[in-house]
Specification:
alpha+beta, OB fold (Dihydrolipoamide Acetyltransferase, E2P), five-stranded mixed barrel, 4 helices, globular
Length: 143
Amino acid sequence: MAKALAERRGTGRGRATRRPAEGDEAAADPPGHVNEVRLVGRLAVEPVQKDLPSGDPLVSFRLVVERDARSRRSAANGGSSRSPTVDTLDCSAWRRDVQRTMARVEAGEVLEVTGALRRRFWRTGSGAAGRSEVEVLRVRRLG
């Protein structure tokens, strides 16, 4: 069965696969995976610093980001009244330089954060828990 699927896809034995044309560098290299996040939004509440059992400090905060204009227009022009016009996103800062910056910001300030989307898991008294968050690598105050 797997062999039949591979042959249909052109990857089985005895089947020629597409070779990149000369000068076709994009076809020669397989596409890379990218996990980059850039957000601009308002800080919802003051950041919270906590020390983990490992002794590592972690600063957590929430960023409120408005959705694009098309989504807002859709909600205003007869779209579902339940359609959100903002997203509230959990962010975490492990880097010391980001933690220092976050110690000086106040709720309501506009920030630009860049980083990566992460899925964290941990154990609780009732079992495993997890959540998705933006791991912030850089932060910039915009106002």
